[in-house]
Amino acid sequence: MQDKSTHKNDFGLIGLAVMGQNLILNVESRGFKTAVYNRTYSVTEKFVSQHPDKQLQGFEELSDFVQSLERPRKVMIMVKAGPAVDVVIEKLIPLLEEGDLIIDGGNSLYTDTERRSQELGGKGLLFVGSGVSGGEEGALKGPSIMPGGPTSSWKVVQPIFEAISAKVDGEPCVTHIGKGGAGHYVKMIHNGIEYGDMQLICEAYALFKAAGFTTDEMATIFDDWNNSELESYLIQITAKIFEIQDPETNQPLIDVIMDKAGQKGTGQWTLINGAENAVVISTINAAVEARILSSLKAQRVIAVNELQGPSEFNSDWDKATFVAKVKKALFASKIISYAQGLDLIKTMGEAKQWDLNLGNIAKIWRGGCIIRAAFLNDITKAYQGNPELSNLMLDPYFKDILNDSQQAWREVVALGVSQGIAIPAFSASLSYYDSYRNDRLPANLLQAQRDFFGAHTYERTDKPAGEWFHTDWPEVID
Ligand code: 2AM
User: Fold this and answer.
1) DSSP state, 438?
2) Model confidence, pTM
């Protein structure tokens, strides 16, 4: 055991915005000696002076920062995703030695991570591209961490990451995701799933609001739901949001918040990646598009007077029935959202030969991150029971829930449609379910059309697969 007072720093962090600050405080709190560096030194000075009792050394010069670290050095970068990461890496390269490790803990695009991994590997340096989820609070108290890179690099950082991550049932919410960009990739899809979860909750809210439920009633409903199979951080905070009054107007705060949603881009990246891999992620896509439509507020306030819909909300369900049905629709849609997101992860993992373990991925999302939820345990169990599961919907546990929910789910979607309440993620989820469980989709007509105008040929239901037919279709006279 080395003398703590003389041995070098165990871990260094570059980039002292809030996430970086909280993450290094978390590392320090687990008994590691830490070093920090920020491009603007005044930020470093201020941060270190705010924590005089901590094992936290600040540096003005990057070379001094690097020299202060125990070998193999472990340097985590928490700067703005994009070119800034490359700038920092370029500066670090000449200062580091073979076997030292760089960790990028920002929200980098996985393709950037793959490139950096290649470049640094060629220089004898180790590199881990790691998703860190849980926002500022997670970073400080314990995030869910999704590291990617070679196993040898993971081993170097494993003790520190296991120490700082959230814990559920005593298990750390971190696992080696896979090589290359796998960690940042899985974090990206995690964010897409988060978009889906949030939008589904918003659609339940839209229905309650249209049906005349008060904000207090909604707070109670979400509180109750948080004690059910829907138990999750997002349901919990939704209940809390409904409880807050606006001190200025004495109305529920939610009623005075502008209905224009922002986004930082990971949802859009997920959407693009789904299209690139030809995997349906319609719930996530609906969620991303709902944010885009919400941002068209100026157009919507014109359209409200121009485009017609049903005049008055009308439903003959009593309140208890309404709540019960919306709950089923929400849970079923949520299952679809995860089924789709995990399908995309599985498909991409196979294409990239990342050797991903979907059960372990669901497991590390149980704590620390925004999508933490009780039902992730059941997802883990589903993949532990059958690692080759083709779609989460076919797992016996989830299948039963979907079968039990489908009637209420379609009644809720029908209500939204008939009453003019946009519920795009509920609807997209149900359409996915109905398409997936249908053994005769209208794609036969599609194939006929393709053969008609482009001689693309088609297979026949009464002939073996792989035999292709063409019809001499009649000529069309315009
Ligand atoms: P700053 O305090 O000097 O702006 C979030 O923006 C974090 O990323 C901040 O710590 C910021 O440092 C850092 N950052 C942004 N661009 C950077 C760059 N090109 N080089 C180094 N750090 C950068």
Assistant:
1) -
2) 0.95
